[in-house]
Structures are given as structure tokens and as C-alpha cells.
Amino acid sequence: MEEDFYRVEKVLENGGVGVLPTDTLYGLVGSALSPKAVERIYRLKKRDPKKPLIILINSLADLKSFKIKIGLKTRRILAKYWPGKTSIILPCPSEEFNYLHRGGRTLAFRLPDKKDLQDLLKKTGPLVAPTANPEGLEPAKTIKEARAYFGDQVDFYLNQGRLDSSPSTLIALKRGKVVVKRAGPVKISG
Fold this sequence. Notes:
Elements: H1 5-13, E1 18-21, E2 26-31, H2 35-45, E3 54-56, H3 72-81, E4 86-91, H4 98-101, E5 106-110, H5 115-124, E6 127-128, H6 143-150, E7 156-157, E8 169-174, E9 177-182
Parallel strand pairs: 1-7, 3-5, 4-8
Antiparallel strand pairs: 1-2, 2-6, 3-6, 4-5, 8-9
Helix pairs in contact: 1-5
């Protein structure tokens, strides 16, 4: 069933998963605070269980939900790239979030620059949002492609036409320096 952002809110709040347009590509999304939704996404994607998922947030305050504390230097770096198409890896040492960081003690977050997505995140809280495809296959650029991958195994599809972006730029912060882990739509200058 294709729905709008306002109806999918309840599905996500109740631990459901679905496909919706992010600020880059279609994402297979579920609540980052629901271990059950996260595990369902791993199964649907047939994803390597050691690889963490990117988490979409609405504001820096959302980082507190993951017991992440950031200093002034990190805050400045985040302000440079957010909101935008850059996912940033931050330390998350809490065992409570092992289901997300998979033992690696870091998580990647993105604060998207897309108003309707920000509005949804404000209501649902943080969402895991890997690309809508089984691991190793091309990311879905249309809902038709996503349906071919997942059929009726997800709770909703939210169509917004063809999305032709590349996955987000992924960076890590090492000793105050920005390190590019995956090139993407945002060009990073040291």
C-alpha cells in the first residue's frame, strides 16, 4: 500500500518497517530504538550482521537517545555538514545499543535536509535507513524496484518518483580530522 508520511508515522511507532524516500535514495526504514524492527531489516536485506545501519535523526538532541556525548569540536564539524547528505560515524560505547553498533561501538548518523522527512523524524524519533535493496544488489531508485525486492514483506511503500542520488557521503572523525569512509554526493575538504 502506498501511503503518505502522516500515515506511516503510526506504523513506524508500532515497530513496523517500510520503504520511503530519504534525502538520497529509497530507504528500508524502521525505528532505531526498536531492536525488533532493526533485526527485521537485517533479515529483509540479508545484511551482514556485523555491519551497522545508518540512522536518520531530526536534531543533535536525538544523539542523547543513544547516550552519545559530543564536544565543541565535534559539534562544529556536525554543523558544517548537517543538515545534508553526509552520514557521520560517532562513538557509541553503550552495550545497550549493541543491536545497532553490532559490537563496533560506533554508529553512523545523518540529519537530512528534507523538510517532510525531518517532520516525520520529529514524530517517529530516529530511524535506521539503509538503502532499499538486499545486500549486494543495486539500491532501488523507484518503488517498483523496491517492490520487486521486498514484495509484501514490508508494511508500507511511500512513492516519490525516481530517486537518482548516490548513497550518502560517509565520514568518520579521527583525532579532530575528517576521514572519508565512502565518497558520495557531498565533496569533503580536509
